[in-house]
Amino acid sequence: MSLNIAIVYGSVRSERKGIRVAKFLEKKIIQRGNNPSLIDPMEYSLPLLDKQFFETEKPSAKLKKLHNIFLNCDAVIVVSGEYNNSIPPALTNLMDYFYDEYEWKPSGIACYSSGNYAGVRAAMQLRAFLGELGMPSVRKIFSVPKVSESISDKGELISKELEKSSEQFLEQVEWYAQAVKDYKIKKGMLQA
Amino acid sequence: MSLNIAIVYGSVRSERKGIRVAKFLEKKIIQRGNNPSLIDPMEYSLPLLDKQFFETEKPSAKLKKLHNIFLNCDAVIVVSGEYNNSIPPALTNLMDYFYDEYEWKPSGIACYSSGNYAGVRAAMQLRAFLGELGMPSVRKIFSVPKVSESISDKGELISKELEKSSEQFLEQVEWYAQAVKDYKIKKGMLQA
Amino acid sequence: MSLNIAIVYGSVRSERKGIRVAKFLEKKIIQRGNNPSLIDPMEYSLPLLDKQFFETEKPSAKLKKLHNIFLNCDAVIVVSGEYNNSIPPALTNLMDYFYDEYEWKPSGIACYSSGNYAGVRAAMQLRAFLGELGMPSVRKIFSVPKVSESISDKGELISKELEKSSEQFLEQVEWYAQAVKDYKIKKGMLQA
Amino acid sequence: MSLNIAIVYGSVRSERKGIRVAKFLEKKIIQRGNNPSLIDPMEYSLPLLDKQFFETEKPSAKLKKLHNIFLNCDAVIVVSGEYNNSIPPALTNLMDYFYDEYEWKPSGIACYSSGNYAGVRAAMQLRAFLGELGMPSVRKIFSVPKVSESISDKGELISKELEKSSEQFLEQVEWYAQAVKDYKIKKGMLQA
To answer: Average per-residue pLDDT in chain D?
Structure first.
């Protein structure tokens, strides 16, 4: 049985490049026989958080859609740039709308930059953020330096070095996701 | 000569409590003979960042006002809650619009929570964020646990224990701000 | 079948208090039907790291013992104080000797302080550290403020509020440990 | 008048490479007319911390020497590798012996790695660590990827790209150190 994997991208800038990383992972996940749901904050246009989903009396169709994606996924991958060595607010803002939806789901961190360091500093803050959301992140981080030169705007690899790294990353995410899913079924927390 | 101190508050939630901390510090700064500029993200309603101020062809009056506050201040104090152990996006989002404005200005971190730990985890991420913005933060962090019980909605102290802590905090911010200001004047980077 | 859980304590100070937290968790783990191995860095006296275990030609009996504990455990709990808002070096130093031993094992973070904030800042650095070691940490952090007033020197709870918190913490560690263990057996990575 | 700048190196491994970064900065500081004191933890052989300097009844000559270097310096530069995405324990351990000595002194972070990311994750933890020690770190981080290919074992640059980066780094450290020193003299905290 295939796994549902949400991919949350973290920028709404017109000239954003990291969407390439998200598209690449989306393709890869399909190739590997699983079901990605790419969440692009530009499509959701959520305002800076006032009320979380569970506090909202009449949530919008968009919020309900996100709620359902997170509720039904088996793992979450975040694709994060780095603004001032920190997590881009478009990413934390979208994810902060939800909480219980995430519980007992593993996560994976993909990070990128236009420069050499691939956003790994933001990735460390994400270890803390995702931990608190109940989604421990797997060891391997898929880190992409010089993103414009590494992946095309259609999400195809230019830098072949990233092939192996992305495979290891997705293997770890799938491994934890399947382990947790099996255990939930065993414990009656999830239907087979 | 008095110091210009910007206070940046980091929440736009209807039920936000940390605005009390910002108001308290605003009063304190006036009492101590300096000039605070309280920046409330609710008044500025900045969208999630697309272009930074310097990239914006025709910046709005609001953006220009922020630019001028940051350009002309001698120090910046951030007042931060903690969302999922991380910095609230309303805070990073507002500050990410600017960069050169901050250079060579000391900063201070105030943090708060409704619970016991006062937001100190977000404060650690702010050490990294403010460092990268060119605003090293002073040692003392003004941390306020149980904010609703500690400061009134008018910004007056209920918990007198915070009096001394806030004084030490502002002394350190002023100390660094004055040291840097004097040196800029000596070096011709600023007019006396 | 019971779980093997290593508990790594992180201080060698004569007047250390956090050993109370480690002893308390040790008892609790036994009560819950599992097998703790308490690792006290004072007993191991490892010098500041020169060579990791796998690089050491003739490892000492002590190093071999640690290697075996980590190799054979199903989860690792770290018990950490906070030195200057960071992880105590006695903790990182001991754990840095090993790497592959940790792979695919969940972890839990317990932190404490003599003051009010329970060491939660060090806990955030531990999210990053344990992630890189291949041991994603569970959401719940067992955090103990005012440690001397909360747990006796024999490891018995004085502050009954910590009872529920410790149960939730150990449940999460056991949950992930069992999920991962079952999956390893299913995949032939471990014998049943 | 020249500045006294302590350089604290953070590894005692036989095959350590970062000592090259420390030696390079030592030379540079001399060239720029200031006085470096290179602190190599291998020469001090401090055990894992039991008692801090101020708690020690009869401190060793080595501890006294360190105390005096920190007390009399105008700024501290740390040279840090990255162990498991975190600060090497040899660095925190040495620095944890002291506290008041550091007060009101700016700091600079130099980091390195054998790989591509130059230790920048440890640098973020150092922002927090140095902040708590009372030594806010300057914006610019001197980050050295592929250290063996970038600097010779005598501390000479192989990669000329690092020249400009090191100059900017030292300028910022000196700028803050001089600003703070001038202000201390003005306030009577230091003799001219």
So the answer is: 97
Distance in angstroms between the alpha carbons of the first and the last residue of chain A: 9
Residues making up chain C, counted from first to last: 192
From chain A residues 137-176, the ones with a CB under 8 A of any chain C CB are: 137-139, 175-176
Hey, which residues does A39 pair with through a beta bridge? A8
Q: Report the C-alpha gap between B119 and D92 in whole angstroms.
A: 24
Question: Is A67 a residue whose pLDDT tops 80?
Answer: yes
Question: In terms of DSSP bridges, do strands D4-9 and D35-39 run parallel, antiparallel, or are they unpaired?
Answer: parallel
CB C141 within 8 A of CB C111: yes
The model's confidence at residue D191, banded by pLDDT at 50, 70 and 90, is: confident
Cβ-based neighbour number of residue D88 at 10 Å: 28
Structure token pair of residue D171: 């300028």
Tokens representing C129 are: 């550290």
Q: Please enumerate in sequence order all residues whose Cβ is within 8 A of that of A158, keeping only pairs 6 or more positions apart, or say none.
A: A149, A150, A151, A152
Contact of B127 with chain D, judged by CB distance below 8 Å, is answered with yes
Of all residues in chain D, the one with the smallest CA distance to A124 is D121
CB contact residues (below 8 A), chain C span 38-97, against chain D: 41, 48-51, 83-90, 92-93, 95-96
In sequence order, the 6+-apart residues with CB closer than 8 A to the CB of B1 are none
Of D131, D139, D179, the CB nearest to B180: D179
Which of D7, D23, D6 has its CA nearest to residue D157? D23
Residues D128, B131: C-beta atoms closer than 8 Å: no
Q: Cβ(A110)–Cβ(A80) under 8 Å?
A: yes
Residue D155 and residue A151: Cα distance in Å, rounded? Answer: 37
Residues D146, D106, D85: CA angle, nearest 5 degrees: 35
Q: Residue D42: how many CB atoms within 10 A of its CB?
A: 15
Residue (of A107, A103, A98) closest to A126 by Cα position: A107
- Is the pTM higher than 0.95? yes
Contact A116 D121 (CB under 8 A): no
- Can you give the C-alpha Rg of chain D in angstroms? 16
**D85 vs A contacts (CB less than 8 Å):** 124
Per-residue tokens: B61? 């009056």
3-state secondary structure of B8: strand
Q: Give residue B37's identity as a one-letter amino acid code.
A: S
Question: How many angstroms separate the CA atoms of B148 and B150, rounded?
Answer: 6
Chain A neighbors of B96, CB-CB under 8 A: 83-84, 89
Counts of helices then strands in chain A (DSSP H, E): 7, 5
CB-based contacts of A49, cutoff 8 Å, min separation 6: A93, A96, A97, B12, B13, B83, B89, B90
Cα distance between residue D1 and residue D97, in whole Å: 29
Instruction: Please name the residues in contact with D137: beta carbons below 8 A apart, sequence gap of 6 or more.
Output: B131, B136, D106, D107, D108, D109, D126, D127, D130, D131
From the number of C-beta atoms within 10 Å of its C-beta (0-12, 13-18, 19+), residue C66 rates as buried
**Residue pLDDT tens, chain C, 192 long:** 799 999 999 999 999 999 999 999 999 999 999 999 999 999 999 999 999 999 999 999 999 999 999 999 999 999 999 999 999 999 999 999 999 999 999 999 999 999 999 999 999 999 999 999 999 999 999 999 999 999 999 999 998 889 999 999 999 999 999 999 999 999 999 987
The residues that bridge with D33 in the sheet, in sequence order, are: none
User: How far is the C-alpha of C118 from the C-alpha of C112, rounded, in Å?
Assistant: 4
Give the model's confidence band at D159: pLDDT under 50 very low, under 70 low, under 90 confident, else very high. confident
Between chains, do C118 and B120 touch, taking CB under 8 Å as contact?
no
